[in-house]
């Protein structure tokens, strides 16, 4: 099932009405298929919404343009973040999942666009799992993220993302009131089994709270 909605994407319905929905956001060079299996592992029975980033970097899909590694095209980042938020709202209306049960799961570039979405559209996502994320931009105004559960998994040996950059992202989110769980491991940029199993446990403790949640429309 895959209506257009402006993004090439996959949508897999959840087991039942109380199931959460995972918004899976791939890294540079990935696509809408890449993280479907990860979503199924992280939260069996959850619905899965997985778009493909619309920017092409020499053929590699991304969610926003960058000028160099770790240097983002700010204007494009803002535009693409709003575009992704519109897609999420349209997908919620089309497929009938509740945004109060929507958890973003992003890796690398996908984690960065998820972080940007959290900062620019507080309230759109209920929770987030960010693997190897960095600061997408420094917000002028601190958003209200009161109690939003956010899991961050970072690598001390990540050569793409300096540890103090991930720490700065955590600090921004904490200052905004989010409930941040930042996990450090002695690993690099690629995702590891330990990242996945820790995120799975974290989600398992969160999901019961989401199953009774209802949208305020
Ligand atoms: C980004 O461009 O979002 C980050 O440098 C990570 C990545 O390469 O995907």
Number of strands: 11
Shape, per Cα inertia axes: globular
Topology order in helix (H) and strand (E) letters: EEHEEEEEHEHEEHEH
The helix content is 25-40%
Which whole number gives the mean pLDDT?
95
Q: Identify low-pLDDT runs.
A: none
Main sheet, how many strands, which sense, barrel? 7 strands, mixed
User: Can you list the strand order of the major beta sheet?
Assistant: 1-3-2-8-9-10-11
Structural key phrases:
alpha/beta, 7-stranded mixed beta sheet, 34% helix, two-stranded antiparallel ribbon, binds D-malate, 217 residues
Description:
The chain is of the alpha/beta class. Helix content is 34%, strand content 23%. The strands form 3 sheets. Strands 1-3-2-8-9-10-11 form a 7-stranded mixed beta sheet, with helices on both faces. The protein has a two-stranded antiparallel sheet with strand order 4-5. It has a two-stranded antiparallel ribbon with strand order 6-7. Helix 2 (74-95) packs across helix 3. The longest helix has 22 residues, at 74-95. It is globular and about 40 Å long. Bound molecules: D-malate.
List the helices and strands and how they pair.
Layout lengths: L8 E4 L8 E5 L10 H7 L4 E5 L3 E3 L2 E3 L3 E3 L2 E2 L1 H22 L6 E6 L1 H12 L6 E5 L17 E7 L7 H13 L3 E7 L7 H19 L6
Helix pairs in contact: 2-3
The structure holds D-malate.
The site of D-malate has 9 residues, from helix 3.
